[in-house]
Specification:
two-stranded antiparallel ribbon, 6-stranded mixed beta sheet, 266 residues, alpha/beta, 2 domains, Alpha/beta knot, 12 strands, single chain
């Protein structure tokens, strides 16, 4: 971004490149609200879908905050280089340890050093698979810092030095960590108090109890010759709960045998 470029705007949220973290939220902020800090070469990618629907409303209301830290200003030399060729040879480029370290130091300002209170995460296809338990753990922290990788990855030394947790969205490769960061933040933010409105809804979702969610139905009662299962309109709440549990178990056995094998035993 040059001096003449105008900041990109997402509704009430304004973004421009800065060495200082850019706060992507409305002026109002709830004291002690959960915070996400994103180190990225593409700060304009945020808030993206996080600025929509319930997460966007919660962001505007100050129930959580989103900050981007542009990696480019920490680059080396006239052209602000952030990467270099891999040691030992090979294709692609690797994000430099010194550049990433400077950004991590900036992101760490005014955050607790305890990783349980403030996880520092690198979005990586070789990381531990992201799951609902991880989302719940992150939501219970004060906030999180996420490093969005690019190119062939990040110098391992900086990941080791800063005790960075590596987490993967799935067994596939993306061009960068921005999409993965948005998905993971969404999963964590929706667990924060007041975001969904009905806290009990999160207890009935897929993965909340190690099972996939049961099928859902609504009006009309008959559609294209297909009826809503009679038990759901019977008014017998015990029978409904029994049916939903059985369907959740059936779907998990059929579609996710790995989850079924790991499910909590009664």
């Amino acid at each position: 971004m040059t001096a003449g470029d105008k900041p990109k705007s997402h509704g009430r949220l304004s973004i421009s490149a800065s060495v200082q973290p850019r706060d992507l939220m409305a002026p109002q902020r709830v004291k002690g609200a959960w915070a996400a800090r994103i180190i990225t070469l593409f700060p304009e990618a945020f808030p993206g879908t996080l600025g929509l629907s319930l997460t966007g409303k919660a962001l505007a209301e100050g129930l959580w905050s989103l900050q981007t830290i542009d990696l480019r200003p920490f680059g080396i030399g006239k052209h602000r280089n952030v990467d270099d060729s891999p040691a030992g040879g090979g294709a692609g480029m690797v994000l430099r340890a010194d550049v990433v370290a400077a950004a991590l130091d900036e992101a760490a300002i005014a955050t607790p050093p305890d990783r349980a209170l403030w996880p520092v995460v690198y979005l990586s296809p070789r990381g531990k698979p992201f799951d609902q338990a991880t989302a719940r753990r992150w939501a219970g922290a004060d906030g999180i810092t996420m490093l969005c990788g690019r190119f062939e990855g990040v110098d391992q030394r900086v990941l080791d030095h800063y005790a960075v947790e590596e987490v993967s969205l799935g067994d596939f490769v993306l061009t960068g960590g921005e999409i993965a960061a948005q998905a993971m933040i969404d999963a964590a933010v929706r667990l924060l108090p007041g975001v969904l409105g009905n806290a009990s809804s999160t207890e009935e979702e897929s993965h909340s109890h190690g099972l996939l969610e049961h099928p859902q139905y609504t009006r009309p009662a008959t559609w294209e010759g297909r009826d809503i299962p009679a038990v759901l309109t019977s008014g017998n709440h015990a029978a409904v709960e029994k049916w939903r549990r059985a369907e959740a178990e059936r779907l998990t056995r059929e579609r996710r045998p790995d989850l079924w094998a790991r499910r909590p035993k009664p």
